[in-house]
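Query form — protein ArsR family transcriptional regulator

QUESTION: What is the three-dimensional structure of this chain?
INPUT:
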Amino acid sequence: MLDSIITSKTRLKLLVKFFVSATNSGHLRGLAGEFEESTNAIRKELNQLTDAGYLNKQQAQNKVVYKANTSHPLFNSLQSLIRSYLGLDQIVEYLLERTGKVQEISLVGDYAAGIDSGIIEVSLRGQELDEAYVLQAADKMAEILGKKIKMHINSTNHPTAEIVLYREG
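ANSWER: The structure tokens for ArsR family transcriptional regulator are given below.
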């Protein structure tokens, strides 16, 4: 859907990287290695996104570090668009439907770190959760979104990157 509007795969990867979470940052060589693309392709897209005001850059030691410009008027819209593109809103809605007493739903793993790996990892915490429904919902959402979905139910592992998508009242 979004990839038909934004035809540059590199630009789409950068938007996912920086707008799935405002805390994500990166530098040219690191991003080139992460995306397995040339530094020239990454540089071109970073420059265009920076010139448009969507990204901020700052010097840190010997590197220029890029982050989402959270004060840009379209920041919230872009973040919402990227999260919808990944299907995160659909996943939350689907899980809240009949899962049980959900306390928290978080995005963890690669996507939380802004890496478009094709595997969406979701951590679900709560009481009396219907695990069979959760696994069925994950399979259904994977089919709809065209990405693999891995569920962590009441996991005690604390991921390095985590984005809370829903928290009970």
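ADDITIONAL NOTE: DSSP finds seven helices and seven strands in the chain.
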